[in-house]
Every structure is written in structure tokens, then in C-alpha cells.
Amino acid sequence: MVQEFLIALGSNLGSSAGGPAATLAAALSALATQGVGLRRVSRFFATPCFPAGAGPDYVNACAMVRAPLSPDELLLRLHSVEQAFDRERIQRWGSRTLDLDLMAMGDRVLPDAETQTEWRALPLEDQTRASPGTLILPHPRMQDRAFVLGPLADIAAGWFHPLLCRNVAQMLADLPPEDRAALRPLPGTRL
């Protein structure tokens, strides 16, 4: 059965495809070779590196995709595309050639509401050291990150977080004004 997913893309190092924006564009094309169909793609945004000082600034985007895959199968394909663009998993939240994150699959909560809520409430200092052993959807940090919500608002402003009972536009509006102001759309990057 074909499923609809929301994914986030980011790069701050670029790759053999070129700089960060060229890398995102090439990665979107590469997804098609993995049996992942693009439905919508946001503008590309220049965004401050997170956490601050961890490297050069990023280019971020989001895409709505469709695929006849489970969330775990899609995640494996996203990792395969990352690897094709020389992604190395050395440091959590470090610089990277390409980052493809699965944000949501409709209104599904995985593995369950309790686990998702636990990871969503994890203090920042623990987030830097811990990573879940299973896929958690919706992504437990999406509501905190302008670099995800800004691009996501381009393509799915009405997507409703099943546990927070807020849509993307509302979650973006909930962020501090300085976080929203730091999003800088790159001209000519809507695919």
C-alpha cells in the first residue's frame, strides 16, 4: 500500500554534487531511484547551524513523498541516499554532507504515544547523548525546530501533529520570533 510521508533535508558541507543546495536537489532526484515519489518540495532555506557553532550554516528543505514502504523501509532508503552523498555518522548533530530525516507518516504515532512523548520531553543535554533504538514518529523534535517547520509550512502547513494537537503553521508561530526570522529562503530553489 502506498503511504505518504514528510521528510526533512539538510546539508551544510555539500557533496560531490556541489554545495549544500545542489546536494539537496541531487538527493531529491536520487530518491526517485529508490522508489520514492515526490509529491511536493518546499523552497530551500539558509538556516543557522544547530547547535550554534557546530559548523557552517545549513540549507534545509522539506518534501512530501509517497512510497509503497513501511516507515522503517523508507528510513533505510533515506540512509542509502545519504550514503551515496558520502554521509558519515561521526558526531550527533555535527556537520554533514546530507541529512534526510523522516518527520511523519500521516497521523501515525510510532512506536506508541508514551515513547513519542518521552522522547519529545527529553531535556536538551540528554538529546545530545542519547538516540532512540527505534523509529519515533512524528519526529520528537520537529515542533522545536524552525529549520524543519519553516520549509514544512510551504508544503504541509495544515498537517496536524496527532499528540500536540497543533498544525505546522501553529507550531511555527509558537517558536520564538528570532528563530523564525533566521530562516532565509534561497531565491530560485523551489523545485
UniProtKB/TrEMBL annotation:
Keywords: ATP-binding, Folate biosynthesis, Kinase, Nucleotide-binding, Transferase. Pfam families: HPPK (PF01288). Signal peptide: none annotated. PROSITE patterns: HPPK. One of its GO terms (molecular function) is 2-amino-4-hydroxy-6-hydroxymethyldihydropteridine diphosphokinase activity. Residues 92-103 form the 7,8-dihydro-6-hydroxymethylpterin-pyrophosphokinase domain. Gene3D superfamilies: 7,8-Dihydro-6-hydroxymethylpterin-pyrophosphokinase HPPK. Pathway: Cofactor biosynthesis; tetrahydrofolate biosynthesis; 2-amino-4-hydroxy-6-hydroxymethyl-7,8-dihydropteridine diphosphate from 7,8-dihydroneopterin triphosphate: step 4/4. Its EC number is 2.7.6.3. It is an enzyme of class 2 (transferase). NCBIfam families: folK. Catalyzes the transfer of pyrophosphate from adenosine triphosphate (ATP) to 6-hydroxymethyl-7,8-dihydropterin, an enzymatic step in folate biosynthesis pathway. Belongs to the HPPK family. This is 2-amino-4-hydroxy-6-hydroxymethyldihydropteridine pyrophosphokinase. It comes from Ponticoccus alexandrii. The lineage of its organism: Bacteria, Pseudomonadati, Pseudomonadota, Alphaproteobacteria, Rhodobacterales.
